[in-house]
């Protein structure tokens, strides 16, 4: 039996809205990737698209209002808004249109489908983009306010000739080899950290030093990095909501980073998940998959940016939170105080 045939009954449950859980997790339980599960639905709610996203991205502005979703293993980030103010630089895209704020890495936008499934609220149709490993990198859903003619034209223009339900994906990538702690020039790393002028240079610093984010934070230590309890999101979000503190929440994967900017309001605890349930922004974070958290300080143009960073079981970053700020202004003191109030694991254990 082919993989698509073995996945077809599971897909039928998803398409009918009777499956319990996220397609990503159901596919993993079945020994497949989410992209392979969606491909198995071709002819039953799924259609393969053939898109060069570098040239096609500007057409998303024609769609008007959409719901966009970017997620990783631990956190799902959902926004309602419209595409616009887009720029493309070689293999990277920026969307800076208020509610839709994205950093796109096109090398990972490899397999695309348009998918219609049923839910308790009726049919749900979305464009789903996956990487070469079969992982979802971004999804764009039609809403009641989407320009239907533009949506239909987009799908029609990019429907692929090949509608095979089989999809070959690459085996998971090997994690890069990192230097042992003893081989890291910690003094040099601290000096480079202290000399940062732009937070966007942080990744290059890590790469040049041959260390992961968590390894760098652990070795550098205070005042630049302090581990806090893994329930930092539970502690932080209600206080931010109560004070209407404008914050930024970055959630991403290798193919896309999605950003919320502004206050958050409705915080909901439900069955092991902490959720933000605001009208145009929802976030779902699975507590058991967030295993470490850090308060991190980075110099930038004469000031300091404080972030709260969350990490999953594999040590991968799953979210970064910071204060909303004017580039010409200092960090909001309410945010600095809130991040500073988060307890360390040792403090929490002693309490």
UniProtKB/TrEMBL annotation:
Q: Classify the source by domain of life.
A: Bacteria
Which SUPFAM superfamilies does this chain map to?
Answer: Heme iron utilization protein-like
> Which residues are in the Haemin-degrading HemS/ChuX domain?
32-158, 210-342
By its UniProt entry, which InterPro entries does this protein fall under?
Heme_Transport_Util_sf, HemS/ChuX_dom
> Which residues lie within the region annotated Disordered?
328-351
CDD domains reported in the protein's UniProt record = HemS-like_C, HemS-like_N
Which Pfam family is one of those matched by this entry? HemS
Single biological process term from Gene Ontology:
iron ion transport
Q: Gene3D superfamilies from the xrefs?
A: HemS/ChuS/ChuX like domains (3.40.1570.10)
Q: What is this protein called?
A: Putative hemin transport protein
List the source organism: Insolitispirillum peregrinum
């Amino acid at each position: 039996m082919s993989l698509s045939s073995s996945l077809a009954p599971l897909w039928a449950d998803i398409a009918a809205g009777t499956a319990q859980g996220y397609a990503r997790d159901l596919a993993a339980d079945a020994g497949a990737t989410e992209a392979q599960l969606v491909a198995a639905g071709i002819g039953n709610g799924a259609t393969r698209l053939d898109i060069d996203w570098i040239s096609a991205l500007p057409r998303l502005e024609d769609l008007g209002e959409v719901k966009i979703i970017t997620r990783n293993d631990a956190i799902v980030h959902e926004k309602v808004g419209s595409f616009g103010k887009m720029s493309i630089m070689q293999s990277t895209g920026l969307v800076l249109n208020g509610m839709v704020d994205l950093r796109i890495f096109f090398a990972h936008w490899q397999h695309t489908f348009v998918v219609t499934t049923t839910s308790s609220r009726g049919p749900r149709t979305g464009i789903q983009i996956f990487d070469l490993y079969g992982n979802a990198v971004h999804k764009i859903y039609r809403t009641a306010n989407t320009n239907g003619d533009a949506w239909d034209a987009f799908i029609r223009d990019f429907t692929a000739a090949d509608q095979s339900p089989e999809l070959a994906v690459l085996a998971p990538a090997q994690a890069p080899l990192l230097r042992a702690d003893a081989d890291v020039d910690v003094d040099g790393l601290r000096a480079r950290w202290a000399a940062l002028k732009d937070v966007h240079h942080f990744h290059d610093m890590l790469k040049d030093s041959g260390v992961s984010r968590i390894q760098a934070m652990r070795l550098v230590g205070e005042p630049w990095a302090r581990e806090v309890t893994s329930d930092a999101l539970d502690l932080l979000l209600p206080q931010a909501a109560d004070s209407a503190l404008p914050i930024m929440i970055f959630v991403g994967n290798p193919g896309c980073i999605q950003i919320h900017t502004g206050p958050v309001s409705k915080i909901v605890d439900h069955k092991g998940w902490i959720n933000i349930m605001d009208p145009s922004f929802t976030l779902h974070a699975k507590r058991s998959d967030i295993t470490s958290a850090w308060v991190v300080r980075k110099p930038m143009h004469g000031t300091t940016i404080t972030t709260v960073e969350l990490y999953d079981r594999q040590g991968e970053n799953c979210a970064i939170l910071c204060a909303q700020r004017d580039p010409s202004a200092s960090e909001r003191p309410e945010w600095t105080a809130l991040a500073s109030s988060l307890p360390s694991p040792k403090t929490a254990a002693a309490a």
